[in-house]
Amino acid sequence: MNAEELTGKQRRYLRGLGVHLKATVFVGSSGITEPLLASVRDAHSNAELIKVKIERACPLDRKTAGRELADATASHLVQILGRTVLLYRADPDEPVIQLPARSGA
User: Fold this and answer.
1) pTM for this prediction
2) In the chain, where are the structural domains located?
3) Which of 21, 60, 87, 89 is the most buried (most CB within 10 A)?
4) If one looks up domain 22-88 in CATH, what number appears?
5) Which residues are within 8 A (CB) of 86 and not within 5 positions of it... i.e. 6 or more apart?
6) 10 phi/psi in degrees, rounded to 5
């Protein structure tokens, strides 16, 4: 991750935004592959906050898969809830989501 880590307040804010999102990327029996990472990057080009569903057939456990997806796509791992991973990556040119300010900054 090349960006600063999210604060607890920022994570809570993003989790609130992510409640009503539908999963746009699904990790299946092939695990994390280059085409899957391309799908995640494509999803991030359309939205800063995305949900990824880790299918039961995925060879990786959900926590490992979440961390690897976040690292490989330069995203923040916001939450792992059940088999769903919430990833956030700010748009470098025109960020849409305004995160709460960092306290003490």
Assistant:
1) 0.90
2) 22-88
3) 87
4) 3.30.110.60
5) 14, 15, 18, 21, 49, 50, 51, 52, 77, 78, 79, 80
6) -65, -40
pLDDT digits (tens, 9 = 90+) for 56-95: 999 999 999 999 999 999 999 999 999 999 999 998 888 8
Which residue's structure tokens are 């990556």? 89
Residue whose C-alpha is closest to residue 47's, from 24, 72, 68, 66: 24
- Distance (Å, whole) CA 21 – CA 9: 20
Tokens (6 digits) for 43: 């999803």
Task: Output the six-digit token pair for 64.
Answer: 């490992």
